[in-house]
Design a protein that fits this description.
Length: about 90
């Protein structure tokens, strides 16, 4: 069975996440697809520039394959969830 990559962007597209997601297994609760096309996958915590990490979209799906439900997030939109089991709420930036 072939594992299809569901984002329109390439699997090696660079995106931003935080050290909390990478090092502390914090859940991704905020996802943005900025006007410039940049993707961000963050926890719900406070962040500084020092917390930022660059990973690929493929890496994000390895960390949390449920992010595939947000592939249709358009430029200038973001999605937030209160918890891992909450529904995503999509808004414009």
């Amino acid at each position: 069975m072939k594992n299809e990559f569901s984002f329109a962007d390439s699997p090696d597209t660079a995106c931003i996440t935080c050290c909390h997601v990478l090092n502390e297994n914090s859940p991704i609760l905020y996802v943005s697809h900025d006007e410039d096309g940049c993707w961000q996958f963050l926890c719900s915590g406070q962040h500084s520039e020092a917390d930022a990490r660059v990973v690929s979209l493929a890496d994000i799906l390895k960390i949390d394959n449920s992010m595939a439900v947000l592939t249709e997030l358009d430029f200038g939109e973001y999605a937030e969830a209160e918890s891992e089991t909450s529904d995503w709420i999509v808004r414009r930036i």
